[in-house]
Amino acid sequence: MATAVLGAGLGLPKATKTRITVKRDLSVRARDGVILRTDHYSPGHDGPAVLIRSPYGRGTVVALLGRLLAERGVHAVVQSCRGTYGSGGRFEPLIHERDDGLDTLAWLRRQPWYAGRLGLIGVSYQGAAHWAIAADAAPDLAAVVAVVTTAAMRDLTYAGEAFSLDTVLTWTELLESQTEPWLTRLIELRRGQPRLTAGFAHLPLAEADRVATGGTVPFFQQWLAEHATGAEYWRDRVFGERLAEVDAPVMMVAGWHDIFLPAQLDDFAVLHEAGHRPSLTIGPWTHGSPGLFAATVRVGVSFLTGHLTGTGTPPAAGTVDVTLTGRGGHRDSWPPAGRATAWYLRPDQGLGAAPVGESAPDTFTYDPAAPTPSIGGPVLVAHRSGPVDNAPLEARPDVLTYTSAPLEHDLTAIGPVYAEIWERSSGPYRDVFVRVCEVDGAGVSRNVCDGLVRVAPGRFDEDADGVTRVTVPLWPIGHVFRAGHRLRVQVSGGAHPRWSRNPGTGEPLGAAVTLRATEREIFHDAARRSAVYLPVEIQS
Questions:
Q1: How many Å separate Cα 241 from the centre of its chain?
Q2: What is the pTM of this model?
Q3: 214 — alpha (psi -120 to 50), left (phi > 0) or beta?
Q4: Which NCBIfam families does this one have (predicted)?
């Protein structure tokens, strides 16, 4: 009954089976002898299969997907990743997913009911586990649905070459708490997760996992230690180098306020530039939001059943459905033709399309002992994510704001966003955070996109005066700023705990305990034109 109501509500292809068979806790043996626990949702006849490999269990959403697919004539195979929910071995993120996934495909090929056509669907980590095998799954692979995920998880972990503390520690706590009694977990959630909050605030970071979870978590320790660009640790844990080899139809589902968006759109570009025609859906979603769930089921089931069974009408290759935020609207290409348009910071806390002449820099102090907080934006937990009122942030003395005059016309910006900030610091180790907001007629400032980069000696060039031009990639955008509203740009020295605070000392990431405040100068004169570059849509 539930799947019938959901299928009708989401406009899914009509179910062809009213009765399905579910076999639980099947044993799939990996090459090293580890048993991977697996559930099988069968339509009762030979046919194609969809594989879902997950570290989050085989119930709830993946069980629902399994039933929806089986009711439409597709075998669904739902497997717990090694070390989770009954599967043997120890969970070590990413390193076993290629071998375990390919061993499961070999198992599938031995099943008498498997017709030789494979689909993959995965959300977040599940999707990364599927990218691990996609290049090697031919000739079986017939369709991939990648939902808020990426083939290159390192990019998310060290966004801007800083450390994505909120996402990583929250995920660590989530995985560790899955073994706790449900009542213990419920009490912790209702109390506002005080252990996790304490972990965010704790130094050194090498102890944060113990504070948040009660124990030391090996992969969290490794991620603190292996943060250097090019670290050997990540070589077998990212799968982007072979992404271009995947020639099966691909559907990507992304959210404007999702943690994976920049890396996911990089994956889309790799496939596109390799001559493939991936499809893309972007909506106003955060990681785990209800709208994202509905889109995953609606788009994913239709795409998979269409390509695997020929029922329904899957979207044509290369179909793009981009829902704009702000005033709204849709676009059918990514990125639409746009022009990188500068909005220059001005000395009167203004923001304009033309730079100014001579002016003194603006100043603030960044103190890691009282770090500039993060509010809203793309984080792992949906209820803390997305657009929010930025008044508490903009009232702080360590946040500079630059605001435009009211817009005379709607301004549509779609595509990549970046900032060039000319800045000088009293210390060589610091972060630069930039956020773009829209200020409505009532003066409420809500974030649209943002980004942060970590600055260290040798990473950016300095001029003769010790001023550094720092390029800050922001999250991509698809937004209509309304006429009468104003643009606002924030510049600050951090966004904690979304990114770990920069201690200002250059100490190792996991060991730093000494905190050093830095005096910061932001320049906007004729020679050093700090600006944010928005991809303004070119009207045809």
A1: 19
A2: 0.95
A3: left
A4: CocE_NonD
